[in-house]
Design a protein that fits this description.
- Chain A: This is Na+/H+ antiporter subunit G.
- The complex is a heterodimer of chains A (135) and B (167).
- Chain A has a domain of 94 residues.
- Chain A contains 3 helices and no strands.
- Chain B has 2 domains: 51 residues, no CATH class; 105 residues, 2-Layer Sandwich (Alpha-Beta Plaits).
- Chain B has 6 helices and 3 strands.
- Chain B has a 3-stranded antiparallel β-sheet.
- In chain B, a hairpin with a 5-residue loop joins β2 and β3.
- In chain B, α2 packs across α3, α4 packs antiparallel against α6 and α5 crosses α6.
- The two termini of chain B are 29 Å apart.
- Classes of the chains: A mainly alpha (135), B mainly alpha (167).
- Chains A and B meet through α1, α2 and α3 of A and α2, α4, β1, α5 and β2 of B.
């Protein structure tokens, strides 16, 4: 067994791991039934799924040509931005759906920032307007 | 005199270093030209953006920060397996999703941001909101029979370390 075979095996393994976690993430989005749990599946899949595939890319480039590390940048940017988009989805959800009674009280301050709005701007409980059909 | 000049040129030495590394990674190669141009960018960008950093965070302690990054990376791998198992093998009706309020000892905004990001990336938890004055985090847990255990683990494992690193 040469080194090349070992590396090819490793690359294949990491790609398959990445694919499995991405698949589980997408499946979770379908299977879970309420908005907040649904948010959990893709945030996890995004990190390890993409991360494993990028590791495969790094390994492959080091084995075949001079090597390449800019995959690390993709990972870094993904790790910085993924929580922020998840945070925004959660905030919209709190803003539109949850009445203050469902959430635990903040232990130290008065109110959660998303709920810190004047009553007439509070959207929770509002009917979401029906999307108007195609023009 | 020399140190004064150094501080004028590099108001934020860690940012300079980070920009040089990011530039080399973007070019995807290491040559003298790349490093020099990276250094030019790393000098100009911190000076131009200095106005947007009114109170710069104290430089984090690098060794502890490296330890923290490794712990979080390991937890992300574990988190993925745990969440995948929950998604695949647990019926929706058996899950115990809940909201957890976490009082914060951290005060610096950068540290709180990193804590919130860490919480979202790790085991079955997503950070959803902060309190109006920034002294508590609202976290949603995917499957937590015991919300207090979630709170204690986050405080013990991540917040304590971040406090050592940043404050």
């Amino acid at each position: 067994m040469t080194l090349e075979t070992v590396i090819e095996g490793l690359v294949a393994l990491t790609i398959v791991i990445g694919a499995i976690f991405t698949l589980v993430g997408s499946y979770g989005l379908v299977k879970l039934d309420t908005p907040m749990p649904r948010l959990h599946a893709p945030t996890k899949a995004g990190t390890l799924g993409v991360g494993a595939m990028l590791i495969a890319s790094i390994l492959f480039h080091f084995a075949t040509d001079g090597g390449s590390l800019h995959e690390l940048l993709i990972m870094a940017f993904l790790f910085v931005t993924a929580p922020i988009s998840a945070h925004f989805v959660a905030k919209v959800h709190i803003h539109r759906e949850h009445t203050a009674q469902e959430l635990p009280d903040p232990p130290l301050d008065n109110v959660w920032a998303t709920r810190d709005v004047a009553p007439d701007e509070d959207m929770a409980g509002d009917q979401v307007p029906e999307p108007s059909g195609g023009r | 005199m020399v140190s004064h000049l150094f501080r004028r040129l590099f108001p934020h030495p860690l940012l300079t270093l980070l920009l040089v590394i990011v530039w080399c990674l973007l070019i995807n190669g290491l040559s003298l030209g790349t490093v020099v141009f990276g250094l030019i960018l790393g000098t100009v960008i911190p000076i131009v953006t200095a106005a947007y950093w009114p109170d710069r965070p104290r430089a984090p302690r690098p060794l502890l920060l490296a330890e923290y990054v490794l712990i979080v990376l390991w937890d992300i791998i574990v988190a993925n397996v745990v969440v995948a198992a929950i998604v695949l093998f647990k019926r929706n009706a058996d899950m115990r999703p809940c909201w957890v309020a976490i009082p914060l000892d951290l005060r610096s905004p950068e540290a709180i941001t990193i804590l919130a990001g860490t919480i979202t990336l790790t085991p079955g938890t997503v950070s959803a909101d902060v309190s109006d004055k920034g002294h508590a985090l609202l976290v949603h847990a995917l499957d937590a029979p015991d919300p207090d255990a979630v709170r204690d683990e986050i405080k013990q494992r991540y917040e304590r370390r971040l406090k050592e690193i940043f404050e």
